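Researcher: Quick one. two chains, 680 residues in total.
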Amino acid sequence: MFYRETGQFKSKYKEELAAFPLAEDKVGIAILLVIAYVFIPLFGIPGLSFEFTMGAIMIPVFIFTITTLGLNILLGFAGQISLGTGAFMGVGAYSCYKIMTIFPDLNIIICVILSGLVTAIVGMIFGLPSLKIKGFYLIVATLAAQFFLEWAFIRVAWLYNYNDSGGIEGTNKEMFGLIVSGPQSDALTRYFIVLTLLVLLTWLASNVIRGRIGRSWMMIRDMDIAAELIGVRPLTAKLSAFAFSSFYIGISGALMVFFWLGAAEVESFDVNHSFTYLFMVIIGGLGSITGSYMGAALVWVIPVLIKEIGKTAFGFDAFVMENFSIIFLGVAIVVILIVEPHGLARLWQITKQKLRLWPFPY
Amino acid sequence: MEILYAILIAPFVEMGAYPDLFIQALWDGFVAGTLYGLIALGFVLIFKASGVFNFSQPILVVLAALSLVSFYKLGIPAWISVILVLIMFYILAWLVERLILRQLVNQDGNILFMSTIGLTFIIIGAAQWIFGGVPSAMIVNELGFPNGSLEWPMFGGGVYFEMIDVSAAVIAVIMIVILAVFFSKTKIGRGLRAVADDHQAALSVGISLNQIWVIVWFVAGIVALVTGIFWGARSDVSFALQIIGFKALPVLIIGGFTSIQGAIIGGLIIGLGEKIFEIYWGPLLGSGVEGWFAYVIALVFLLYRPQGLFGDKLIERV
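Model:
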């Protein structure tokens, strides 16, 4: 009733090809942006403290959405499975740290983007085996990347400037007279920066996916031999998918350390985190940008809320709630795979379709 | 030149100069390899019979070891605890078949694989909740395995063989023989092979898929229990074992996904290879290379012999 295309006429091809051809979608996106940019900074989420909203929910969800977008590009659009996401985030974080120590005066946003580029190169190198192998076999190649990089983060002392703690930590960085990163920065400032980067990266991803490169990824995913016959070069398609995905993952890794955690060690990039990101993609929906948002939000927020509610409302100790949230995650993934293997994004699609026809069944 | 010498010559000189250390390293690698092979065996069994790449095998090993120790701590005699663990695994196999596999019949291999990751998380959470996360010692003596070690003097030094490692190797061999006989001679074994070959054809001649799945998950559980006992005896019983379980993946690549003897031989290659590399070449790279060396061997195999040593030549290459 409120969501249908009747009466919205297009007179140019360009309008047909727009990202959001329906007026309702445009309004919906605008409302979401207003909520993210105005309402949440002003009012927070009702029932939760402002600090908690920013530090434990909004900033990490936005950062992990970038990670999930990156992994979804690789897994959902190009069909190349990877279990090295955690380590690639580490590459982003450590390279950002190195770039900041080598060029102390460089703007931190530029550092973050440069570290994304470094990760893209590393991702391409570890993506090389994908040219010969696929499926489960690629898991082994990406696990090799995961464990090798984890080892490098510990053993190559140059990466963390030979400090004793063996970790990396952010220092105060200024931009336009505001402290944007480091221990003294304001959560709200960091929130706006992460949000803006997320919006820009989403915009970039949605356009790349609709374009020539994105289509070549999907062709490789659906049937590589047929794609090759049509004239898609597997080399460029696969490596560009690895590069693009690693770019996102690297940026999210740098953001995670310098705009959220403040400091990190190897443990923040281990293989269990790789699994969590994989879950975000699966639960959200393979090959869907909306799904990346939903998956990251659900997988991150539900355990946090479970822990918080268990602690405050029922007085369970942290250990029990921790395990409960792990079980919940496992059950969620099995249920989603059984009920809707295409994830939350497909459910959203179905809802939209129903809304279009409502109140009639078909 | 110096680097070349350090890479190409020095390690071999060292091997020749201290042959007892070399043999010790070989033995350690052999034992570790047997255990990797046992974990991989669990993967192979399930993959052979149902085409599911069972990611939860390492956590099954942890679960077996943890529950065995916990039952014993409750005051139940060791051997009865073993039987209890086996009953528990039978129930688990039945639940997995009922609640997960049966719902996902006809789905893509990737989806089945991901569902076993979900299962892994469920088991991790539940096991930590019930048994706690504190590492504990394996009940080796109580189960009647010999402890202590054999010392074998040679080349002016000595090589130590831990008795528990010797028993692990012996039991591994016995188990493989039993499994090989089980797979080739018994009715159930033939059923398993039939299911692995073609689900529909197997169904049409009256083999119950569901029953076969329960059996194969149960057998994988038994293998997990044996692995858990011996691995627990070498280090403590804790969730750290799960990370070591990832080593089974390179083992499978080397041995092939469908071969029982491949799993063991692949395990030995990985075990020996990484031990020797760690001891003689590791210091050049700053040690700790055990974590990733196995994957490098696996990558080399993937590029030159993607079906593994004993695998079926069905692998789709790009």
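The longest helix of chain B spans residues 19-50.
Researcher: Thanks, that's what I needed.
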